[in-house]
């Protein structure tokens, strides 16, 4: 396949994934080498090789646009969120915009990471979504990491956020076209159940998961994770696959 045809094929795939017009999808693919880096270092596998999370679209070689992380209390979800955030902004020349909601984040992350205030996070995310919609997804990609997502969503003020037409569903469903990538951590192993009205959108649009120690993944030790991608595997089912990548991570 010639380079030109390969570009066109990638653009068609990107168009199908994002819903963007073909001309814009082609421009996105043509400038892919200049777009911000969406690869985060997670840890090392059993052979000592680096294990990474790539939130880019499959047309760009990634497994995005979103990712979930599940695990019981103390399994390392917040630590992994911090590691991902730091890794994404390590090189400021290629860093996306990174937003983090985490109980551990304040004062621990680089100044280039925006730490979301729990009291205004809903409004901040609505504003981010509206801004990206006006830009038609043409701005700098944004990565939003929400720690303890299922716990946060149970708060009464989140009803509008998680409703059938709410912001969370829009972010999950339309994030790929808006240039917004989500990383959501939760204790609940079943992501669709944890996200309420946004659950069906999650099943259709989140194809990468990281499993930490929990009842269905009890053989994992603390500080270990299992990276699951939907390469012929349903990552939303709580099952181990021979395609999973086991890795070790430590506090940064």
Automatic annotation (TrEMBL):
InterPro entries xref list: AAA+_ATPase (IPR003593), FtsK/SpoIIIE/SftA (IPR050206), P-loop_NTPase (IPR027417)
Every AAA+ ATPase domain range: 63-207
Signal sequence interval, chain numbering: none
Compositional bias annotation for Basic residues: 1-12
SMART domains xrefs: AAA
Region (Disordered): 1-26
Protein name per Swiss-Prot or TrEMBL: AAA+ ATPase domain-containing protein
Organism (species): Mycolicibacterium obuense
The organism's taxonomic lineage, starting at the top: Bacteria, Bacillati, Actinomycetota, Actinomycetes, Mycobacteriales
């Amino acid at each position: 396949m010639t380079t030109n045809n390969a570009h066109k094929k990638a653009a068609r795939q990107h168009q199908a994934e994002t819903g963007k017009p073909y001309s814009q999808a082609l421009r996105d693919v043509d400038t892919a080498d200049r777009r911000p880096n969406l690869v985060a270092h997670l840890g090392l596998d059993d052979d000592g090789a680096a294990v990474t999370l790539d939130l880019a679209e499959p047309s760009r070689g990634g497994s995005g646009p979103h990712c979930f992380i599940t695990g019981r209390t103390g399994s390392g979800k917040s630590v992994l969120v911090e590691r991902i955030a730091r890794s994404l902004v390590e090189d400021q020349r290629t860093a996306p915009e990174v937003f983090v909601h985490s109980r551990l984040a304040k004062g621990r992350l680089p100044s280039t990471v925006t730490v979301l205030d729990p009291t205004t996070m809903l409004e901040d995310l609505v504003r981010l979504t509206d801004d990206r919609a006006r830009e038609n997804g043409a701005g700098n990609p944004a990565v939003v990491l929400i720690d303890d997502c299922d716990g946060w969503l149970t708060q009464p003020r989140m009803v509008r956020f998680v409703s059938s037409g709410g912001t969370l569903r829009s972010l999950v469903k339309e994030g790929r076209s808006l240039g917004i990538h989500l990383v959501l951590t939760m204790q609940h192993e079943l992501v669709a159940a944890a996200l309420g009205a946004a659950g069906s959108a999650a099943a259709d649009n989140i194809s990468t998961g990281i499993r930490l120690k929990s009842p269905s993944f009890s053989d994992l030790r603390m500080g270990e994770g299992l990276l699951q991608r939907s390469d012929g595997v349903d990552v939303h089912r709580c099952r181990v696959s021979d395609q999973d990548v086991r890795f070790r991570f430590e506090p940064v």
